[in-house]
Design a protein that fits this description.
EC 2.10.1.1; 29% strand; binds ligand LQZAQKY5; Molybdopterin biosynthesis moea protein, domain 2; elongated; binds molybdate ion; 22% helix; 4 domains; 401 residues; alpha+beta; Molybdopterin biosynthesis moeA protein, domain 3; 9 helices; molybdenum cofactor biosynthesis; molybdopterin molybdotransferase activity; Molybdenum Cofactor Biosythetic Enzyme, Chain A
Length: 401
């Protein structure tokens, strides 16, 4: 059976997300809006800055008075600090002015104080200035009525500052999704419990929960589900009545105990399965009782990679975010890759001396190499890599934000 290219899987995921009802929204204080998704565009109600102001500590004057300013100097007729409302500048004079202070009417430029000699209330200028020099004009940053940020924008620290700069204290944002996280497998035990024969600790639960928290979603931890068809069916149906999205790990491959996939096929529907991605081939998109189920493969690295590359764009799209694909940076490989694979491989890599270095084993059962890595590098299906070749690098910072 041929594997579905990742691009096609992503298209289907985003199409499926677009078919869901839009998120309800809520109004939050700006200080609590970090990472939230704007529900409405933010429009500037006034110009920023609201008036022309000085970019330097110095002296404001009109360029027409420059010949005299250089020749014999100009009397200083006022002193303007930030926060003051200045008087209009008397012709033939200059004003002492400080960074951020409003430019007085009648002045059109500012000279920095390092270039001025001040003596007995007179400022002597040394050089010519252009109109507008060292002046930050009204509306330089934003003009009244312009779109400050569009709907679907994920708010970062600089965005909160920008919104505050137009005087807004609250924003309308999308309500987070209720997302259930379900771990499947008889072998799983929670940390702090003794390990019995054949058992391992449930690590995916923590990776996935934390990744969802980073995205600001409401996480419902549904615990561990044993490998049992009846319990899988009941658990999925119960979760479907309670949450917006179900994310599972494990049980989606072809094994006899891979009940997650089986129950979806028998009781719900499977829209995506078997992708040309490594790690992560058995990633599944399905539905149960009309609720989406995103089935991550159990192998920890496969779970991580499919979360950041497939689940995250789906969730962002559900939240109304427009740009859902992660930012890729072209960086030269410091390794060779001789055997072309049949799937797009997302290799765990470090950046050392500006080049991508493989982080040891790329086994999908290993998580330590993911923790050593700075991000993922794409080695496209059917490709070899020569040292120095540019690869798309996806830093974890961008993948998890
Ligand atoms: N005959 C085939 N076997 C497998 C194929 C295949 O195409 N044919 N695909 C392999 C690939 S690729 C992957 S990836 C895995 C995924 O299988 P499942 O999603 O069904 O996952 P499990 O079998 O339940 O578990 C796989 C592996 O991961 C460990 N695991 C599971 N859950 C957790 C957890 N919460 N925390 C830590 N580790 C977990 C589990 O113990 C297994 O070792 O299938 C291949 N097989
Ligand atoms: O996704 Mo599996 O981990 O490709 O080997």
């Amino acid at each position: 059976m041929s594997l579905m290219p990742v691009s096609e899987a992503l298209r289907k995921l985003l199409h499926s997300a677009a078919g869901e009802p839009p998120r309800p929204c809520e109004t939050v204080e700006l200080a609590a809006a970090l990472g939230r998704v704007l529900a409405d565009p933010v429009i500037a109600s006034a110009d920023v800055p609201p008036w022309d102001n000085s970019a330097m500590d110095g002296y404001a004057l009109h360029t027409r008075d420059l010949p005299r300013a250089i020749d014999s100097g100009l009397p200083i007729s006022q002193r303007i600090t930030a926060g003051m409302a200045p008087e209009p500048l008397q012709p033939g004079t200059c004003a002492r002015i400080f960074t951020g202070a409003p430019l007085p009417a009648g002045a059109d430029c500012v000279e920095m104080q390092e270039n001025i000699r001040e003596e007995d209330g007179t400022a002597r200028f040394a050089q010519a200035l252009r109109p507008g020099q060292n002046v930050r004009p009204r509306g330089q940053d934003l003009t009244a009525g312009s779109v400050v940020l569009g709907a679907g924008h994920v708010l970062r620290p600089q965005d909160l500052g920008l919104i505050a700069s137009v005087g807004m204290a609250r924003v309308k944002v999308c309500r987070p999704l209720r997302v259930a996280v379900l771990s499947t497998g008889n072998e799983l035990v929670e940390p702090d419990q003794p390990l019995g024969p054949g058992q391992i600790y449930n690590s995916n639960r923590f990776t996935i929960r934390a990744a969802l928290q980073r995205l600001g979603q409401d996480v419902i931890d549904a615990g561990i589900l044993p490998d049992d068809a009846q319990q899988t069916r009941e658990c999925l149906e119960q979760l479907a009545s309670d949450v917006d999205v179900i994310i599972t790990s494990g049980g989606v491959s072809v094994g006899e105990a891979d009940y997650l996939g089986q129950v979806l096929r028998d009781e719900g529907q499977v829209d995506l399965w078997k992708l040309a991605i490594k790690p992560g081939k058995p990633f599944t998109l399905g539905q149960i009782a009309d609720k989406p189920v995103l089935g991550l493969p159990g192998n920890p690295a496969a779970s991580l990679v499919t979360f950041v590359l497939l689940v995250k764009p789906y969730l962002l799209s559900r939240m109304g975010v427009k740009r859902t694909t992660p930012l890729a940076l072209p960086i030269a490989a410091d390794f060779t890759w001789d055997k072309p694979g049949g799937r797009d491989e997302y290799a765990r890599v470090r950046v050392g001396e500006g080049r991508l270095q493989l982080c040891g084993s790329q086994s999908s059962g290993m998580l330590s190499t993911a923790s050593q890595a700075d991000g993922l590098a794409l080695i496209p299906a059917g490709s070899i890599v020569e040292a120095g070749q540019l690869l798309d690098f996806y830093p974890f910072e961008g993948l998890f934000d």
